[in-house]
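Job type: complex structure
Entries:
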Amino acid sequence: ETGVTQTPRHLVMGMTNKKSLKCEQHLGHNAMYWYKQSAKKPLELMFVYSLEERVENNSVPSRFSPECPNSSHLFLHLHTLQPEDSALYLCASSQGDRAFSTNEKLFFGSGTQLSVL
Amino acid sequence: RKEVEQDPGPFNVPEGATVAFNCTYSNSASQSFFWYRQDCRKEPKLLMSVYSSGNEDGRFTAQLNRASQYISLLIRDSKLSDSATYLCVVNRGYNKLIFGAGTRLAVHP
């Protein structure tokens, strides 16, 4: 167990559905991340929150909407997705603080395997 | 050009072999470096940080060459349990950790 929990583990949705991915960390970390991992491609950084403030939005389409209500919880709201959005969505956390340490070590959740039909 | 490039492999080696992976990065302002390991259908896990002076953790040795912008990982005395994908990770600063696509290692008996 890494201390980062993601739900659901698997999700199948239609293109007109609205769903949310949830991530919770029990490590007392200040930074949380969403990454996307597609087959045979590197992990793509989507969003970064540090102390509940979004510090990175890596040109992600607006059909993905993150929410960070507190430093322990992170959501990814999904609506009108496309089949090419099918991928493994990984949440991670790190110590993180406003000093933006360069030695951040990520702790990942198990991911949500998303299929868009 | 990808910001972090790795040979995808696979590297197929027998138990006990020594194997080395390289990684290059394009952003000279990159500030810190790591190797992560990802098993099939699992999340990535930190293997080790990479320091300028080189560092060792048991059978694993990591090296960084800032001038040439490459990072290496050496695994000695390979075990079956070392079979995984090894991800090179670069911290660009401001919590932006960029991953390579990974190098797949298969250790056989």
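Summary: The radius of gyration of chain A is 14 Å. Chain A has a mean pLDDT of 89.
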